[in-house]
Amino acid sequence: MTYRANPALALMIVAALGLARVPAGAADAATGSDAAIAAAVADSGRPEADRARDAARLPAATLAFAGVKSGDSVGELLPGGGYYTRLLSKLVGPNGHVYALAPPRPADAPPDQPDFAARVRAIAADPNYKNVTVIIEPLTNIAFPRPLDLVWTSQNYHDFHNVQGLDLVALNRQVFAALKPHGVYLILDHAAAAGTADRDTATLHRIDPATVKREVTAAGFVEDGSSDILHRSEDHTAAVFDASIRGKTDQFLLRFKKP
Q: Which 8-state DSSP code applies to residue 103?
C-alpha cells in the first residue's frame, strides 16, 4: 500500500504528543518524518510477534515523540528482543546507526540463564539491519564509538535500580557524556503510583516517574517533554508480568535534553 503523508495530520500528531511548538514552514519536515516513521513500522522484516504488540505499544507515536530522524546516531540501552531496534534501524536509515548495548553474560552464569545479547546479535547479523552494531558492556561502562543524537531505553529504567552496585547518577552522567549537545535521552517505563519512588522496582517492576525525573536531571539533563499516550487507567498494584495486566500497563514517556 502506498503511504501518502498528510502535512496537516503530521502537525496535528506533533501537537497532540506535546512536542515543542512547530515553527511556521515546518510542515514539510513534519511530513517527511511522518512518512519515515510509517515506513519503519510497515517494515516487512519485523516479526509478526512485534506487529501484534503495536496496538498496545503505539510505536509510531512513540517514535514521533522521541524525534528520531534519518541520519541519527542512536544508542539503545538493553534492547531486549529488539522490538525497537528494528524500528530505529529503519528510521535512521543508511546514513544513521543504532548501537545496541547489552550486558555481558557472566562467566559463572548457570546454563539456563539467557544471554541478553543473543537476540539483538541476530538482528545485527541480518543484512536488512546492517546499520545495527551490538556493544557488550556492563551498565557501569556505557560508552559508544561516536557522539549520539539519542539514547533510548524502554521498560528498563526501573531495573537499573535492581542492579547491585549500580550508581544511577553515574549511569545517567555517562549517558549525558555520550550525547551530542542538545541530544535526547528517551525513557519509556512502567509507571508506579505517585509518591512510591523506587519502592516497587524489584516487586512490581514499576517506578514513579517523579523519581526518574529527579535522578536524570541530577546528571545535568533538562526535562524536555512528557507524553501520556501510553497512559492506562488501570491501577498500579499488579506486577507488570501478571496476566491480568501484561501488555496493558500504565506507562510513561519522558524526554530529556542535554543542554
A: P
